[in-house]
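Researcher: Let's continue the batch. This sequence belongs to Isoleucine--tRNA ligase, and it's 935 residues. Same format as the previous ones, please.
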Amino acid sequence: MSVDYKTTVFLPKTDFPMRGNLPTREPEILAHWEKIGLRKKLRESRAGAEKFILHDGPPYANGNLHMGHALNKVLKDVINRSQQMLGKDANYVPGWDCHGLPIEWKIEEQYREKGLDKDNVPVIEFRRECREFAQKWVDIQTEEFKRLGVSGNWEDPYLTMTFPAEAQIAREIGKFVMNGGLYKGAKPVMWSVVEKTALADAEVEYHDHKSTTIHVRFKVVEAKHPALEGASVVIWTTTPWTMAGNRAVAGGEEFEYVVIEVTDVAENSLAQVGEKLVVAADLLDSVKQAGKIEAVKELARVTGAEIAGSILAHPLRGQGYDYDVPLLLGDFVTTEAGTGFVHIAPGHGADDFVLGQANGLEIPQTVGDDGVFYDHVPLFAGMHVLEDNLKISAIIRDAGGLLARGSITHSYPHSWRSKAPLIFRNTPQWFISMETNDLRLNALKAIDETRFVPQAGQTRLRSMIEQRPDWCISRQRAWGVPIPVFVEKKTGEMLRDQEVIDRIGNIFEEEGSDAWFTSDPSRFLGNKYNADDYEQNKDIVEVWFESGSTHSFVLEARPELKWPADLYLEGSDQHRGWFHSSLLESCGTRGRAPYDAVLTHGFVLDENGRKMSKSLGNITAPQDIIDQSGADILRLWVVNSDYSEDLRVGKEILKHQADQYRRLRNTLRYLLGNLDGFTEAERLPVAEMPELERWVLHRLWELDAMIRDRVGAFDFHTLFTQLHNFCAVDLSAFYFDIRKDSFYCDRPDSVRRRAARTVLDEIFNRLTAWLAPVLCFTAEEAWTTRGTGPEESVHLRTFPETPVEWRDEAVAARWAEIRDVRRVVTGALEIERNQKRIGSSLQAAPKVYVGEAALKAFDGLDAAELFITSDAELIVGEAPADAFRLDDVDGVGVVPALAEGGKCERCWKVLPEVQDPPVCGRCADAVGSLDTAAE
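Model: Same format as before. Here are the structure tokens for Isoleucine--tRNA ligase:
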């Protein structure tokens, strides 16, 4: 009777499908996690364990997620899940920034579309609309983050607009009130005339802008050097409007200046033959070109030090600008462009302000919050500082002060929200001093004590803190936490009273900061003070102070968390944003940073390295990736990228991620299929295993050590690359390839098959755990498909401990030699297949020429089994000239040959023993064992 040998082969069997169908399957897994209360069980399982707290930097609640959000939150999730897999309690509380300009601007846009004026709306009504807008987007973004597979306390996140948060922000401001760090001063700050508010550095972006430029004469009225008698000092500026605020001119102490007499001019030149001008010697040619000066006579050369202290006249003297203009020295003056002299307007520049303070210069108030000159400003009243520079230069020309006018396109500060150009404007603002209480020194010390990943972040943040001016924390807006300060009208002094600060905090805790706008001031001041004697501040605190305070109302306020955090993680722009403000706020109130480590990632660009924009049509949205391919593909992209640099994404890159995903999924499917029916009774002790299995166990030991090390280094790019290579190269292309015959054809109780299945079980247990932080959905699907572990979710597990006994360097070295030889054999057989001389490697019986060391490596092993051929001969010696070789494997050559004998109908090996019956002895034994088992 004939036997259908196909039915006797142990083919893989699993319900784990080859196609992931992730867009459909992932929501089902999310629902399953919700049903079983996974997060609660995870927290319970880690109760009492060492905490790992990654404090979430708050995104703005004002729109759908983009790829930057996806990168950031997925990276945080991978870190948290990895730490949990190490057995730690990684409790993640997500948060949102709900106040500030981005949200307020959205509401104002809605007003403008309806033809309404925000200033005519009651402030409480406006704040209510901002609150509702923010809450809407918190709800939307929550669902989008959850769809990414990000695990966290989504039921109770932190929001900067909750009453307890607003109360604590007010209390944190109060700490600076009480320690003397907060003060009110008039300084030039970056100002948006569109949004009518000061902006922080982090809210400023730079774009090309075309500015009117002017060269202007300042006549010398009192010369400190004889050469300047009757001359005019020439300045150059790209902001003609600041001339109304001019109070000095600055030069460089060691610069060489030339005093020249104009002897010839071109047509339409504003220069006059016979006039004397003073400019930097290095810039004379460019000044001549700008002023259409054809020829000059050099009269003298002087240094900045020799002419400092001279008194100049404002070019509009006699028309309301009749004060003296001193010639000072400034270390910020350069000879890169212009004239080597800088006109100083202390109210319109940081360097100007500092120089003005040092020399007792007046800081005039010239420009309103809308960018229009005040009525008291001579000649320019009612003009706009950004729109009327041509008119302003014409006024200076008519007064005889203009030497030249031109234009320049240069990088210029713009508001990141309105995209409008900004100005430096002197306004009364609230500042936190960088020097009081040694805030700068404490912050620098904290930076030195913090771990930075990558390390370059430390240098970057340190240089910012070293150079930064006092921290302007006030904004002239409506939506946010007010700076809850009272100023005594009589003395101008700020009220410092802890009782008042505590009372404000308690009221905000119960009613929110809206109470500041709806309550009588006496409610906060209490009976100790007469409200009529005090002015209540109505500025709000900038959002960077709010987000910088989150450690106080999240880390310190929640017992399940801890202070300081183990890690802050955001994009590299946050060195001047959240990392920066959190450092200053915490150092100013607690003396150290609120974090032990800071990790930064790059920005997301398109495949060509360009910034994504609607106009370029190159935006890749996370929602589209999820809908088309699934969140695990997006998560794979995150760890497959080097996040320390800018990351690229696009169709081709995502296609590559999908290809890698398929290889990983097929590895899991292969494991599951060949583990079908595996029980503990089948498990084989390591000591009884063939050496190939012991090599795999050694590789698992190596990977376990690598993974734990890379998790600690937050280096998931290296981790995942090695894990993928293990699956694709060590397993699929080598171990699985060799052992496939044993899985399919060995009798079930054979040592080789039992050992191989035992190793598959160990691989599966580790691979599902190692992949779980990254492919959180697929690892869960694989784990629950097998359903043999006590945990109902892979995410309740920890990384399995790998016995140190699995380490075997001698075995590793031996199998490295074997694999090199095998690569040469595989290459030779591939040519035979391509040339149609064989159809399968089992038709081959190659002659393999090797050295003594390689021969020794194969001692006791079946070379044909490792080569997946039916026979093989190892020969010590030099291979024939026509043998196949690989350049990177010395001393190995292969001469292909055909195997002799019949083809086994069950395992397909070609063996001399296969005649009648039509199967080899091994297969006959395996079939016989099945018959015996059936009886």
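Researcher: Any comment?
Model: Residues 10-17+649-807 form a domain with the Isoleucyl-tRNA Synthetase; Domain 1 fold (CATH 1.10.730.20).
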